[in-house]
Amino acid sequence: MDKTLQTMINNMPEKTGKTLEEWFQILKKEKLEKHSIAVKFLKTEHGVTHGFANTIVTLSKEQDAPSEDLVSAQYDGKATLKPLYDKLISVVLKFGNDVTLSPKKASVSVIRAKQFALIKPATKSRVDLGLKLKDIEVQGRLENSGPFGTMCTHRIQLHELSDIDDEVIKWLSIAYEKSV
């Protein structure tokens, strides 16, 4: 999980009077469908600042959507790419029991102490593997981060299972080791 987000969650009881889990229960009870309505509810009925309200609602929606549903939706219409995702996940989970997967709408963040990789079905024929490898030059199949911006420093494009070779596993492992 992002360090800033974790700090915000840690400060939530002091700043808002309730823990994240307590806010989840309040939102669940209200059954507010739209994001903007839920944010407005927290701001007007509970005096929560916009930043906290938006974070609470966003995290509650992520919690309500089963992780596998988010991943399945990413590969809807791109079923030939799902085995690439599955193989990448099996590789990173072997690195240690401190790896966390955080599926989002369009990608899956791979986190240790910090995010070290991002897996995204970029097109119908390609998965982009974003890696956080500070101070490492572009080389081999390791290219500039492309669409990931500051989230990742590098990217590797994967088209088929055989693309997840020793070089890719090496870069994933290095990113994992650097993420402490």
Automatic annotation (TrEMBL):
It comes from the Bacteria. It holds the Pfam family DUF4287. InterPro entries: DUF4287, DUF5655. Residues 72-177 form the DUF5655 domain. This is DUF5655 domain-containing protein. It comes from Shewanella woodyi (strain ATCC 51908 / MS32). The lineage of its organism: Bacteria, Pseudomonadati, Pseudomonadota, Gammaproteobacteria, Alteromonadales.
